[in-house]
Amino acid sequence: MGKKINRKQAIKNLLALASTPILAGSLYSFNDKAEIGKPSPIRPLGNPDIKNPITAITVGAGSRGTVYGNYAVNFPNELDIIGVAEPIDIRKDRYSKKHNIPQSNRFTTWEHVFERPKFADAIIITTPDDLHYGPCIKALEMGYDILLEKPIAPTEQECRDILALQRKNGNIVAVCHVLRYAPYFINLKQLMDSGAIGEAISIQHLEPIEHVHMAHSYVRGNWHDSKKTTPIILAKSCHDLDILRWLVGKKCETISAFGGLKWFTSKNAPEGSTSRCADGCTVESSCPYSALKIYHRERQRTYVFDLPEDKAKHGDYILEQLAKTNYGRCVYKMENNQPDHLVTSMEFEGGATVSFSMEAFTSYHGRRTRVMGSLGDIVGDMNEFTHTDFLTGEKTKWDITVKDVEHYENSGHGGGDWALVTDWIRAVKTKDSSLLSSTLDASIESHLMGFIAEKSRLDKKTMTIHS
Description:
Strand order of the largest sheet: 14-13-12-11-7-10-9-8-15
Number of strands: 15
Strand content: 15-25%
């Protein structure tokens, strides 16, 4: 994880952070008094110097398409959404209304967009995982710049095909590995690179999915079948593989993964349970995964139902959806095959090791990270991290909370979602991909790690990674 640095040099490096931004796009500004314990100031989101917005077409107006589209609402001088492709009418209509998209630029599927000559600067691809490859290849062929939701594509060969075509044509493509743009991880990388913990020897990283999120997305939801979408280590955790590769700063050489589907299976269905939670299940009131509890009584994650404008109708509408969609089914009686717990061990060039755990059964979410170095260690939880100096025993806390920073409260992943869009817009405007951290070249490594980790898990073998 980098050459050895003595303590005197580490102190000099910490002070030098004032002039060494981690991202080429420089989301963060520094002053000459930057010091340990004082996070780098967060530059406000947006590019005020841009007067004429780039134009974009959103392909997929679901949750992620809405997140990136909302940037255009808040920064209309930078991004203008002029088209949308979405097969669900209510989503398409709401998205079109929000962005004032003319009827002529509203499409049902991604294929319809490309039946017309190029009519925007960029394409935002936020379709389901298994529908990334088609629109991305077509957009590259037609000369669009691209904001591509992760994962890049469901197979290694498709990822390589996309990368090869992008290299050939020179399009600007940002992969939505948004954790690279989160202030928490940027400050964490700065501290590691400064040498304050000496040589980084090992990392332990936890992704707590949170039990309701797991049941919603990977048992009942769109990603419940890995064969129809992507394995969960890509669908959910390629963020984490990417950020770990970025923090280490070296290539992963070997990988070994363990885990599987243990709890959400028919053999664990309680006596008295029914195929749907509202079909007279006798244990519904005592089940933490009850669809009636989650969606109807607590109104969690109801965005998937595209609720009507009249809030008075929400209750009945949710019950109707629970009666006919997978979201109303018993979590023990689905056709799900995604692992609900996963442990991945990795060894990087130089011998540094990383242990990554993805866990469904937590009451909380938000990544937890521990970095162990030769001169100190770091413990963090996405809001703050604490550095301990082994020599002095001094503990210094870095608070990276972004809730009070303008616009960041509307951006997910610790502020990373919109920070990514800020840099992507600048890269498209200047045709300079070096302004991006999450380019295709940078992002494909973590995808290869994910594909090989899944093979390791299934074959129960330690695998070597070849570029």
